[in-house]
Amino acid sequence: MAASGLSGLDLTDVAVRAGVGKTTVYRRWGSAANLVTDLLSEMAAESSPRSDTGSLSGDLHANAALVYRTLSDERQGPLFKAMIAAATCDRVTASALEHFYDTRVAEWAPCVTDAISRGDAPEGTNSESAIRQVSAPLYYQFLTTTKRLTPADAERAADAALAAIAAGLFRN
Amino acid sequence: MAASGLSGLDLTDVAVRAGVGKTTVYRRWGSAANLVTDLLSEMAAESSPRSDTGSLSGDLHANAALVYRTLSDERQGPLFKAMIAAATCDRVTASALEHFYDTRVAEWAPCVTDAISRGDAPEGTNSESAIRQVSAPLYYQFLTTTKRLTPADAERAADAALAAIAAGLFRN
Questions:
Q1: Could you say which of A8, A161, B110, B148 is the most buried, measured as most Cβ atoms within 10 Å of its Cβ?
Q2: Interval A18-26 mean pLDDT
Q3: Where's the DNA-binding part (chains A, B) (predicted)?
Q4: What are phi and psi of B49, to 5 degrees?
């Protein structure tokens, strides 16, 4: 899938590479989109737990660094590109991908609610929106340019989200 | 293309819908990716000129509103999705898409350089990066969720970019 996208993913090839009979693969998933749905729930469940550094800045920088590492990874980067591309024209994949991000955002949202309790973020800040703001510039660069992401991009993504949170822009 | 993506775009169909001979279309473009490249340069050239409201806030809100309208448009929204998806697996399209965004960012960058001259943005702010920050959360939501963008999302995208600019995060 990373090599040729969802449309290039053939369940028969998957069976060959997994060394199992193709009936097994077809009976279990039926379509490439269903297989990707399972892959995404597994990735959501197994992905790194949120940080708890004691400061909102420390936590959001850790989140940005994780997104940077994921998108820059030789295997995961192309995989995410392929899944996002597939989601644009396949509803099953779109809903699985949305669920993946919802799960990851829910994992990291307590960084913001803890910060509110500490007085480190404005009362009423929507923690999900605040966490998504960290990823936004990294994904935008990843998907609309051919420039490689750098650790400095991740630093700035975290700092920009912190500035927007401090300005009260994510209050409901 | 909006209906079925770049891989579903057949030059013979294009010729039929345009009411011209298919040789004309093949001789002019040769491949669907080349046709999309021309489409993107035309879109970049014909897209709305930048705002000049006299304030950075006014200009960035106008930029965010334009991105919102484009991505929410019944025809342009699916077209951008299809082009971004195609860019993930086709180098010609990726480079045409990057050139499209570079052109649009260059059109709007003077909003930031003018703001610097007026003392409305920190000295040394990278105008291109600042403009891209406005689009980022809108594209991120557009591509990774099934939630429709709202005018409030555009307002917040502009305000978040303004907060990050004021914090000096786009200084070179």
A1: A161
A2: 94
A3: 10-29
A4: -70, 160
Residue in A81, A136, A163 nearest the CB of B140:
A136
- How do residues B13-46 score in pLDDT, each as one tens digit? 999 999 999 999 999 999 888 898 899 989 988 8
Q: Do A95 and B163 touch (CB under 8 A)?
A: no
Cα separation, A59 vs A113, in Å, equals 12
Give me the residue from A133, A156, A167 closest to B137, CB to CB. Answer: A133
| Partner residue opposite A85 with nearest CB, options B89, B136, B159 | B89
| Cα angle A140-B153-A160, degrees, rounded to a multiple of 5 | 50
pLDDT at position A7: 76
pTM of the model: 0.94
CA distances from A78 to A98, A134, B22, B157 (A): 18, 20, 35, 27
C-alpha torsion B165→B166→B167→B172, nearest 10: 50
**Which candidate, A159, A21, A87, places its Cα nearest to that of B141?**
A87
Structure tokens of B54? 């006299």
Residue of A nearest to B166 (CA): A163
Q: Where are the beta strands (DSSP E) in chain A?
A: none
3-class DSSP state of B171: strand
What does the alpha-carbon distance between residue A73 and residue A71 come to, in Å, rounded to a whole number?
A: 6
Four-point Cα dihedral B64, B65, B70, B72, nearest 10: 110
Can you list the domains of chain A with their CATH numbers? Answer: 40-166 (1.10.357.10)
Counting one residue from chain A and one from chain B, the pairs whose CB atoms sit within 8 A come to: 114
